[in-house]
Amino acid sequence: MKIKKLVSGMALAMGASMVSYGALAADTIKVGVLHSLSGTMAISETTLKDTVLMMVEEQNKKGGLLGKKLEAVVVDPASNWPLFAEKARELLTKDKVDVIFGGWTSVSRKSVLPVIEELNGLMFYPVQYEGEESSKNVFYTGAAPNQQAIPAVDYLMNELGVERWVLAGTDYVYPRTTNKILEAYLKAKGVADSDIMINYTPFGHSDWQSIVSDVKKFGSKGKKTAVVSTINGDANVPFYKELGNQGISSEDIPVVAFSVGEEELSGIDTKPLVGHLAAWNYFQSVDSEANEKFITNWKTFIGNPKRVTNDPMEATYIGFNMWTQAVKKAGTTDVDAVEQAMIGQKSPNLTGGVAVMNKNHHLSKPVLIGEIQDDGQFEVVWETEGVVPGDAWSDFLPGSKDLISDWTSPIKCGNYNTVTRTCSGQNF
Amino acid sequence: MKRYLALCCCVLGLLLNPALNPAFAEADQPHSVTSTEPSPEAVVGRSPKVQMLLIELTEKSLNKAVPVLEKLEQSGGEAMLPLFRTMLGGNLYFIKASRQVVALVETASGDAFADVFTGQALPDVAKKQTKKIRVNNRLRGYLRDAIARIQLSSSDPFAREKAVRNLLSELDQPTIEAIQSARVNEPNTAVQEMMDLALAMHKLTNAALAVDQLEAIEALSGSLESEVRNLLARVSESENYEPAVNKAAASALVKIQDKVEFYAFIDQLFFGLSLGSVLLLAAIGLAITFGVMGVINMAHGEMIMLGAYTTYVVQLMLPNHIEYSLWLAIPLAFIVSGLMGVLIERGVIRFLHGRPLETLLATFGISLILQQLVRTIFSPLNRQVASPEWMSGSIEINPVLSLTLNRLYILAFALLVFFLLQLILKKTSLGLNVRAVSQNRNMARAMGVRSDWVDAMTFGLGSGIAGIAGVALSQLTNVGPNLGQAYIIDSFMVVVFGGVGNLLGTLVAAFSLGIANKFLEPVTGAVLASILVLVFIILFIQKRPKGLFPQKGRAAE
């Protein structure tokens, strides 16, 4: 009996809160935030939720958008991939949000895609990913493989003279696709099969002894060896620790990582990592006025002077700025109008230069390679001369070589085949 | 007992005494610089040529710095050692206005600057006026080699041996000449051997006569250095050598390869034992609560997690005593996790006695509560637990076999915990009571054993051991709210495989699963290896439901 009362009381309270939500909704523009706040990915995604909240607050201080205030609607998909789809549906149908910022892992994005296309929503995805996708309803503000992996390999090959390659990754879609692209790329560059070693490990792998010892053996054949790491999440910590313990220094076998940034380094002892590399489009250490301002704003917003900034945060920042500009240009938050207005939007990068949104919903951005320093920051050792336009479909995979994505008339297709001149009709 | 200890100390002392140990005997040669003013480093450092090169160094981009460093090495020689070391450490700066190169040094009151060559403090220089001279991996590599070349004349034999080894990959003419001249006066046999190896490698590549080449191969055979192996492999296939030389190189290579494979086997065995020790630590607490008491405790992993967090808190409280923090963390983790275990037993499990399904669900709920508790208190982010200095690095037995220290300590620690636990169960009255209750609760109660109290203590003991495992795991993996979940499945696997209620079974199961996993891994990859192990256990349990060491007799029911 008691429990029944409690439940009905809770239902009442929830109903009441929803009503108040509804009353508020009329004169605000709603920004959905779909980042995991619990579970394994909470470590990385919570930061992005806070970034969106900071951007919303700043925009409201400037007077909002189209004369209305922005209102953030935060939901927690709890690192549970099917829940991402449910929460996206909830945001679009119940809360009627005008835009969603969200996702981290590729599997979460893939899970949201059908929902967001069915309901014609708009999503900004701020993390580097494996490419091979372009949806009308998604803008990809993180790096495509040609904006991170390929330049990193070029750097190792040309600047460090690397001849033998270890492609190590966590066992899921992003590392597998990236490594497939890299393998094809390396072979196109004349690297022999026997000079490539590919290794996959489960999420959260902690016993790296034999893999690191294999890498050591692989690297002792007299040719310069490097590890290209798509190891994701907290498995990186024991991996680098083991490298240090087995005495592999960054001069012997450098490791270039695509998922290790300032945020990941902030929780660990960086001594054994010094000199290892990471490829991103943004580093906190880059000296620029815009970056300095962003970092100060972030630290004040979060109330912790020790917090760091990272690449997906910059991607969120650029995506948010472009969205506000596009809404202003379109004069409405209608998805189709904003989508068309987005293409060609320019927003200054935090590292200098200007990012441009291309027809394929990917950004043109500079690529930076940094070496890890003992304070957990990166020292930029190399950068591309200009910006690199993001390529949705890799040129190095047989299936996707001929595909392009172009969301402007007359093509309006995410996977247009330039040889057969057809659009497969599938949207992503 | 005391006499044994004293004897051990004596032996250790003898081993470590430099005068009595030939390997160290030559360490005290007077090589070092006397402290008369001004030191030779300072003189060379102030010479106009070096000054000019230093200014050049501040102006060059990263990619063009190597030639400047080469010139510095040639003109400065030994005097450049402090400069190179500072640069290697990333502490080399220059004053923007005067382009004077300075070293960043850490002092008690924060960062300060000093002269690179004399070490004299420069209190007037503020960090704002300076700029860092950046280093990348290529420069680090060059600097390390340069330091090695200079250090050929170091007073420490280990430094000399390391220097020669570092040079094996870069045997050009000046390096060989440096080694040759150093070889003449080299008193230490280990360093002599290393130098002879380098000279033989050089001889093999550069000698014109087949006789000399064969002689060089003779000298090289048996060495495990990877550079030697690569050289021999090249020679055995190269057409620039006579067939006889090709053949000799190939047979020397085969001999070396056999040795390497033998050590690789030992290496893998060690990896397996190490993984086994981790499994043992994680599972042994469960072997008590699940094996002896029969409680399916899904919150066991969280007991491990609490232990790891205790280590974190201890290090947080004593930031200056990281070296000893683990010794304090071990008993504290035992107490924290043990008390939590007693609390869970008294608060929940005793009401669910004999209802395994409810116990499973309730403890699973507890595990979620504990995880969320930790998330709320410590944040969902992983916490950093530092490794003490004595646990980092590895013991290098030979160039192809080195054992990482942290794994070695944890292996020993796991065995120690196992034997202590055996001792408690076999020799103490608590152990007697525990065994009595687990064999026949009613009979034990009839004999006057307080079964409630024994249950609580047993659960506390099992949980406490899990806490100790957490301390060890904090040295190997991430300390975060999900730490326990990663080990709970493995722990159950080990206990079920080993046979419920049998500690020895847990030991054997842990090590055999660890070794099997590590021997499968190179063949199948990490993902498939764990799948195969799991499939094997399922099949094994089908055949022998009671595990490796089933309980026999009346205790079995």
Question: Which features does this protein show?
Answer:
heterodimer; A: alpha/beta; Rossmann fold; 2 domains; seven-stranded mixed β-sheet; five-stranded parallel β-sheet; 12 helices; B: four-stranded antiparallel β-sheet; two-stranded antiparallel sheet; globular
Name the assembly state.
heterodimer
Characterize the biggest β-sheet of chain A. 7 strands, mixed
Residue-averaged pLDDT of chain A:
87
Query: What string, H for helix and E for strand, traces the elements of chain B in order?
Result: HHHHHEEEEHHHHHHHHHHEEHHHHHHH
Layout of helices and strands, plus pairs?
The complex is a heterodimer of chains A (428) and B (557).
Chain A: H1 2-25, E1 28-34, H2 42-61, E2 69-75, H3 81-94, E3 99-102, H4 106-118, E4 123-125, E5 138-140, H5 149-159, E6 164-170, H6 173-188, E7 196-201, H7 209-218, E8 225-230, H8 236-245, E9 255-257, H9 262-265, E10 277-280, H10 289-302, H11 311-330, H12 335-342, E11 346-348, E12 354-357, E13 363-365, E14 368-372, E15 378-383, E16 388-389, E17 403-406, E18 413-417, E19 422-423
Parallel strand pairs in A: 1-2, 1-3, 3-4, 4-5, 6-7, 6-8, 8-9, 9-10
Antiparallel strand pairs in A: 10-14, 11-12, 12-13, 13-16, 14-15, 17-18, 18-19
Helix pairs in contact in A: 2-11, 3-4, 11-12
Chain B: H1 2-16, H2 40-46, H3 48-59, H4 65-76, H5 81-88, E1 92-95, E2 101-107, E3 110-115, E4 130-132, H6 137-151, H7 157-167, H8 173-184, H9 189-206, H10 210-220, H11 226-237, H12 243-292, H13 300-317, H14 322-347, H15 356-378, E5 394-398, E6 401-404, H16 405-427, H17 429-439, H18 441-446, H19 451-473, H20 483-498, H21 503-524, H22 526-543
Antiparallel strand pairs in B: 1-2, 1-4, 2-3, 5-6
